[in-house]
Amino acid sequence: MDLLQRLSQTLDRPLFPWKKLIIGFSVGQYLFEEFLSWRQYQVLKKTKVPKVLEAEVTQEVYDKSQDYGRAKAKFGFVRGLWGQLQNIAFIHFDVLPKLWAWTGKLLLNVAPARFTGEISHSIVFVLSFILIQQALSLPTSIYHTFVLEEKFGFNKQTPKLFITDMLKSNMLAFIIAPPVLAGFLSIVQKTGNQFFYYLWLFVAGLQVFMITVYPITILPLFNKLSPLEDGKLKNDVESLAKKLKFPLQELFVIDGSKRSAHSNAYFFGLPWKKHIVIYDTLIEKSKSEEVTAVLAHELGHWSLGHTTRLFGISQIHVFYIFTLFSVFINNASLYHDFGFVKEHPIIIGFILFSDALAPMDTVIKLLMNIISRRFEFQADEFARKLGYQQELAASLIKLQIQNLSTMDADWMYASYHFSHPILSERLKALDWTPSGKITEDKEEETVAEKASGREL
Ligand code: ZN
User: Fold this and answer.
1) What's the chain's average pLDDT?
2) Which among 149, 298, 425, 445 is annotated as catalytic?
3) What distance in Å separates the CA atoms of residue 386 and residue 430, rounded to the nearest whole number?
4) Active site residue 380
5) Ligand 1 centroid vs 302 CA: distance in angstroms?
6) Which residues, listed in sequence order, are joined to residue 99 by a DSSP beta bridge?
7) Average pLDDT over every residue of 95-111
8) Closest CA to 428 of 401, 386, 396
9) 258 C-alpha to center of ligand 1: Å?
10) Residue 337 annotated in active site
11) Helix ranges restricted to H, 95-227
């Protein structure tokens, strides 16, 4: 690992303007994303229904969906600006070193001596940081749920549920963060130059652990899973699973409608024992064959090895992050420029390093979305070959309409942001031709009744 050490020395130049560079990255990324949003906004101003959807989408639904798109875009602009201002203010007012010093003092005053080391200090620091971030994002998330989503009829959350959700997720952060951070920091402290290798193993183990315990421990805190009732849907899905040799253990329905009219279906579990979860909103709004078609698409992801490949890619990504982190961890000039002169806490190094890595994240996001969109086409094709062409097309169209999802997109915006191809592309790839209306009574589709499932 000679190369890494040399790189590390090259990047550690006294008085290098890290702060300016990182602010520059952050502003640059912000402007780039705003530029894309501006392009998308032009598409959202169109008033003519796209050709492929002409038979299905009324002018009224189209206008409404464009309205929703523009409302989300404006909200995104305000939220982005707010985040950007916070970021610059945090750097400008030295929030990190101040918070580090403050949490250090707090620990000295209240904790027994053996809990004042770097690990305990980092834990208190990170938890305070989470609380501050949360408080700052509270106004926008309240607005998003109770004004924006409410206005278009998607919100199903009550203020009480919103608050209990928040308390529960904080409680979880306070339970999970300390042991994970302690593991992370002690690995870096104890394994020397090769720490990135052990850190990667640690995170991979953690991921497998979370996949296993999440559905039985954390998920039930927020949602209720109940077995799918006997009937046609259950029989169809079970025989589909059997046909594909999918190791289906149990079929669940999740009460997604508790929070939102958005819906979905997915599977989870270990390679030899999997569970399928279907949102109640999806069942409620679709015909049984259409739900099966959606699951044929989902199981396509499994059968084509997409899940395994994505896990593999995420391992490479984690390894790459930690390897680069090992290049920056001893970068005195980076710490120094951010006001950490005497101390070089590992966790601070990691936060600063993550900021310096932001431009690379943009590239990775773009690549991941390209891969993901390709997988979506393949899963659609898989469902088509199984004979679900009509049903899948029908459910895609229905959900799109119910969800008021953006029907058209600017290509640059879509390439960067979308993990799924847009509807017209998917219908084209499915080789689907419109033949009469798919959605039944128009009357039924009042805005208040929408369910949705963009993330098929
Ligand atoms: Zn999919």
Assistant:
1) 88
2) 298
3) 12
4) yes
5) 10
6) none
7) 92
8) 396
9) 23
10) no
11) 95-110, 118-143, 150-151, 159-190, 195-217, 219-222
